[in-house]
Amino acid sequence: PQTVQFIQYKKGEKVTQTLSCTQIVLITKGAVKISYDHFFDCNIGLGKIILLPPGCHFTMHTKSGADAFIFRFHEAIDFISLESVDGLIEKMPASINNLNCLDMNPRLADFLSFIQNNIQNELCREDYLQLKAKELLYLLQHYYTREQLTHLFSPLPTTNGRFHNFVLMNYRGIKTVRQ
Q1: Rounded Cα gap, residues 100 and 150, in angstroms
Q2: Mean per-residue pLDDT for 68-85?
Q3: What pLDDT score was predicted for residue 147?
Q4: How far apart, in whole angstroms, are the C-alpha atoms of residue 32 and residue 58?
Q5: Which of 165, 151, 127, 149 is nearest to 22 (CA)?
Q6: According to DSSP H, which parts of 2-145 are helical?
Q7: What's the rounded Cα separation, in Å, for the pair 103 and 27?
Q8: Per-position b or e across 106-124, b if 16+ CB within 10 A of its CB
Q9: Helix (H) and strand (E) counts for the chain?
Q10: How far apart are CA 111 and CA 101, in angstroms?
Q11: For a Cys staple, 21 with which of 16, 74, 86, 140, CB 3.0–4.6 Å?
Q12: How many CB atoms lie within 10 A of CB 138?
């Protein structure tokens, strides 16, 4: 799949996947229900941003249809690995029943509208989409507080993710514990 995808989910559509990379999902129309890990049928509505960690098995469905952007990151997202992020995560209230969502601000909505227009007019190549994924991270970093970003990115197994990415990239080739 492409680095950035605009998807229009039909009424009643259901998607089940196991992710091989980190995905940031932004809902631009309608609402979806997502289940993964210990979260079950959590409603993600219009204007919400959610991060799905690599390796998670998730199910998403919509009753009345929804539009979403999916940004895929195959490498570790380490811009948030500022000092004491782990300390921030420890201080955050536990969100046992709530997914870690952010509200989309107007600047991100404009950014997505521009990308959607380019996708619909077939003006996108993969290198352009990779650049837009990096731009999304830049915009998140500059339009949201460190605490908000820590909340969004807290499902990632580590702040730098290097070992996790190593395991994901090499698990099929390993036959024994020694390898």
Answers
A1: 9
A2: 71
A3: 84
A4: 12
A5: 165
A6: 85-91, 106-120, 126-143
A7: 10
A8: eebeebbeebeebbeeeeb
A9: 5, 9
A10: 19
A11: 74
A12: 11
Reported confidence tier of residue 76, pLDDT bands at 50, 70, 90: confident
Q: What whole-number distance in Å separates Cα of residue 67 and Cα of residue 25?
A: 10
Residue with tokens 């993969």: 126
Residue type at 76 in one-letter notation: A
DSSP state of 144: S
Under 8 Å between Cβ of 18 and 57: yes
Nearest to 83 by CA among 160, 15, 12, 21: 160
CA 160 to each of CA 15, 79, 92, 93, 163: distance values in angstroms, whole numbers, following the listed order: 29, 9, 19, 22, 8
